[in-house]
Amino acid sequence: MKVLMVCLGNICRSPMAQGVLEKYIVQHQLNWLVDSAGTNGYHDGEHPDSRAIQAAKKMNIDISQQISRQIQTSDLDQFDLILAMDTNNLNYLKSMCRNAHQLSKIQLLMEFASGSNKLTVPDPYYDNSFDHALGLIHDACTGLIRHYEKTN
Ligand code: 4NP
Question: Which of 58, 85, 94, 152 is most exposed by smallest CB count within 10 Å?
C-alpha cells in the first residue's frame, strides 16, 4: 500500500506523519511505502522545520533528510491512500480530483485515531505545539496500521 501524508507546507505535520508511519512500517514488517507533500509549494526543496525535526528526534525518528514538495495531480493516481492533516487540506485535495476513484482515496488522518474525537492535527507552525501534533499523529498511525495491517 502506498500512503501519502498531506499538510499545507510539507515542513511540519506531514513530514512527522511520514516519519512515524515509516517507523511503524518497519516495526510491523509491512510492504508499504509512505511519502508526504504540501498543498502549497512555498517550502519546495526545504528540509522540515527544525522544531519538527527535534520533536521527532525525541521519539527516535529521523525526518531531517526529507525534502518538501508540492502535491501533483499524478499523486492522486500513484497513491492508494491520501491522508490530510486538516479540513482545509482535505478540501483542497478533493478539489484536485478528476474522478470518483481518486476521491475515494482521500481521508483525514485523524479518522484513524482512537484517543481523540478531534479530526484535525492543529498546525504547530505558529504556536510551537509540535509535541501535541506528534502525539495525535502517533495515535492515528497506530489506528491506521491496525486497520490495514493485512493489506500489501
Ligand atoms: P505544515 O505547517 O503545513 O504542517 O507544514 C506550515 C508550514 C509553513 C507554513 C504554514 C504551515 N507557512 O505559512 O509557511
Answer: 152
pLDDT along the chain (152 residues), means of 10: 98 98 97 98 98 98 98 98 98 98 98 87 97 97 94 77
Question: Nearest C-alpha to atom 6 of ligand 1 is from which residue?
Answer: 9
Residue whose Cα lies nearest atom 3 of ligand 1: it is 8
Give yes or no: 86 in active site. no
User: For the chain, where are the alpha helices, taking DSSP H only?
Assistant: 13-27, 50-57, 75-78, 87-96, 100-104, 124-127, 130-148
Q: Which residue has the cell 504547530?
A: 124
Residue 135: partners with Cβ closer than 8 Å, 6 or more residues away: none
Active site residue 141: no
Q: Ligand 1 centre from 150 Cα, in Å?
A: 33
Q: How far apart are CA 13 and CA 19, in angstroms?
A: 10
Which one from 12, 13, 49, 141 is the annotated catalytic residue? 13
Specify the pTM.
Answer: 0.97
Domain segments of the chain: what residues?
A: 2-151
| Residue 150 φ/ψ, nearest 5 degrees | -85, 0
User: CATH fold of 2-151, please?
Assistant: Rossmann fold (3.40.50)
